[in-house]
Write a structure and sequence with these properties.
- The complex is a heterodimer of chains A (115) and B (116).
- Chain A has no helices and 11 strands.
- Chain A has 115 residues and is mainly β.
- Chain B contains no helices and 12 strands.
Chain lengths: 115, 116
């Protein structure tokens, strides 16, 4: 078990381009979360999957954002027509749903810079 | 809206001393969880300690302990015998339970510096 991994670790793009990030959760974790963290702030919830089903989306997730988790394994987060305000660290976390002791394990994040 | 407030943007402590990080939260729920997460520079966030709101006993994990005051909606973290490796951003977080999942709401963080 190597923990939650994210790829790429860094991404620089020009405004208007599309970008896609990947998250590989800890194997057998059935829940996967995406958060966004801007400089000097705590992470903010974006969306959540239970297996392959996307069950909750934040209002922060505009129509330009889409997330998938095919087959309930890895997940992708795509941002279309990027804007400078999208610059942030995008964090993925996974967990195993248990009765009381669910713990979210975070990946190292993908740092996005939109020029 | 549920919010988490960390009023100390930065804290520093001498190595081997004790430091307390403050956190307050606002919620109308009666059952929830509280967490402290640690984010070292350029490294991933890791869980330090958790507290279930229905438990009166304060959680402890080795050198880390909390002071949970439910009526005051306060959840402070005490780090005893501070070590250089404790230097990090510390985030207090509260969970909203949505469709069974834990949607974490984070504070703005406290940057902890350990002075050798």
């Amino acid at each position: 078990d190597t923990g939650v991994s994210q790829d790429p670790r860094h991404k620089i793009t020009k405004r208007g381009q599309n970008v896609t990030f990947r998250c590989d959760p800890i194997s057998e974790h059935n829940r996967l979360y995406w958060y966004r963290q801007t400089l000097g702030q705590g992470p903010e919830f974006l969306t959540y999957f239970q297996n392959e089903a996307q069950l909750e989306k934040s209002r922060l997730l505009s129509d330009r954002f889409s997330a998938e988790r095919p087959k309930g394994s890895f997940s992708t987060l795509e941002i279309q027509r990027t804007e400078q305000g999208d610059s942030a660290m995008y964090l993925c976390a996974s967990s195993l749903a248990l009765a009381a002791q669910e713990t979210q394990y975070f990946g190292p994040g993908t740092r996005l810079l939109v020029l | 809206a549920q919010t988490v407030t960390q009023s100390q943007p930065e804290m520093s402590v001498q190595e081997a001393e004790t430091v307390t990080l403050s956190c307050t939260y606002d919620t109308s729920e009666s059952d929830y969880y509280l967490f402290w997460y640690k984010q070292p520079p350029s490294r991933q966030m890791i869980l330090v300690i958790r507290q279930e709101a229905y438990k009166q006993q304060n959680a402890t994990e080795n050198r880390f302990s909390v002071n949970f005051q439910k009526a005051a909606k306060s959840f402070s973290l005490k780090i005893s015998d501070s070590q250089l490796g404790d230097a990090a951003m510390y985030f207090c977080a509260y969970t909203l339970i949505i469709q069974g999942a834990q949607k974490l709401v984070f504070g703005q963080g406290t940057r902890l510096t350990i002075n050798p």
